[in-house]
Specification:
- The protein is α+β, with helices and mostly antiparallel strands.
- The chain contains five helices and 16 strands.
- It has two domains: 94 residues, Rossmann fold, CATH 3.40.50; 140 residues, Probable inorganic polyphosphate/atp-NAD kinase, domain 2 (Tumour Suppressor Smad4, Sandwich), CATH 2.60.200.30.
- The protein is 18% helix and 42% strand.
- The strands form three sheets. Strands 6-5-16-13-8-9 form a six-stranded antiparallel sheet, with no helix packed on it.
- Strand 14 and strand 15 form a beta hairpin.
Length: 267
C-alpha cells in the first residue's frame, strides 16, 4: 500500500508557521498524514521558507532520496517553486500525479586532511577560506593539470543551481540548472606583480575533477563551508571536487520558469 505520509520542514517565523498550519489542514482533508521533520515512511518532503530552509532541510534529511518541493515564504526563493496561494492546486495536482521529478546532482568534496579522508556533499556551493580570514594561497588543478595559483579571500565551487547565489554576488556566471557543471569563482583575487591569476570564473564540465591544494603552514586553519555549514581543517592537504552521482530529487509541477525567476529576483 502506498504511503500517505508527507514530511514537512519549515522555519519558525510567525508567517511561515501560519502557512504551515494551513498546509497541514489541506493535507489532512485530502487523507494525508503529516510528519514534523523527516520520516523514511514519507513519500514527499515539503519545505516552507526560503532557499535557506530548503537547503538546511536537505542537509538535515541526510540528502534524502524522497522528493523535495518548497513553498516560498522567504525572499529570493530559487528552490521553493510554490507560493502559499498555490497550495490547494498543488495538492490536487500531486494527488492526480500531475508532476515531474528531476534529479539534482550534488557537489562532492573529497577532503584529505591529517592523514584522513572525508566526503561531504553540497547542493549550492562549497566555499574555501582561511579561518582567520587572512589571504589564502591555493594551487588549482583541473583534470590533474595545474592551472593557476589563486591568492585572495578564497574561492567558491558552485553547482548550476548554486550559481545564482554567493557565486553571482562574487561576479560568477549564471548557469542553466539542467547543465551538469561546476564553477570556480575566486573571491577578491590579488592581481599584482607578485600574484597573478585569472580574474574570472571558470566553468568545468562534469567529467573533469577540480583539485585545490592550499599552502601548508603551521597554525594555518582552512574553513570549508558546504551550503553555509562550516568545517575547519588544520592539516588540509588537498580537496577534490566533482559532480557527484549522488542526487536529490526535486519535484516540480512545471510552473517553475528559470528565466522568469532570474528576471523577478534580479531585474
Amino acid at each position: 500500500m502506498k504511503s500517505k505520509v508527507i514530511n514537512i520542514a519549515s522555519n519558525r517565523d510567525e508567517y511561515t508557521l501560519t502557512i504551515r498550519e494551513k498546509l497541514i489542514n489541506i493535507l489532512k482533508s485530502r487523507g494525508y498524514d503529516c510528519h514534523d521533520g523527516f520520516s523514511n515512511k514519507g513519500e514527499l518532503n515539503i519545505t516552507i521558507g526560503g532557499d535557506g530552509t530548503f537547503l538546511r532541510s536537505v542537509r538535515e534529511s541526510n540528502f534524502s532520496t524522497i522528493p523535495f518541493i518548497g513553498i516560498n515564504t522567504g525572499t529570493l526563493g530559487f528552490y521553493p517553486e510554490l507560493t502559499p496561494d498555490d497550495m490547494e492546486s498543488f495538492i490536487s495536482d500531486y494527488a492526480e500525479g500531475n508532476y515531474t521529478i528531476n534529479n539534482v546532482n550534488l557537489i562532492e568534496s573529497e577532503i584529505f586532511a591529517a592523514g584522513h579522508t572525508q566526503k561531504i556533499y553540497a547542493v549550492n556551493d562549497v566555499v574555501i577560506k582561511r579561518r582567520d580570514m587572512k589571504t589564502i594561497h591555493m594551487d588549482v588543478r583541473i583534470a590533474s593539470n595545474h592551472l593557476e595559483k589563486i591568492s585572495g579571500d578564497g574561492l567558491i565551487i558552485s553547482s548550476p543551481l548554486g550559481s545564482s547565489a554567493y557565486n553571482k554576488s562574487a561576479g560568477g556566471s549564471l548557469v542553466y540548472p539542467s547543465l551538469k557543471t561546476l564553477q570556480i569563482t575566486p573571491l577578491s583575487p590579488i592581481i599584482s606583480n607578485a600574484y597573478r591569476c585569472l580574474n574570472c570564473s571558470i566553468i568545468v564540465p562534469p567529467e573533469f575533477e577540480i583539485s585545490i591544494y592550499p599552502e601548508k603552514k603551521e597554525d594555518y586553519y582552512v574553513t570549508l563551508l558546504s551550503d553555509g555549514e562550516a568545517s575547519d581543517y588544520n592539516e588540509l592537504e588537498y580537496v577534490h571536487f566533482r559532480t557527484s552521482k549522488k542526487v536529490i530529487k526535486r519535484l516540480t509541477t512545471g510552473s517553475f520558469n528559470y528565466w522568469n525567476v532570474i528576471k523577478d529576483k534580479f531585474l
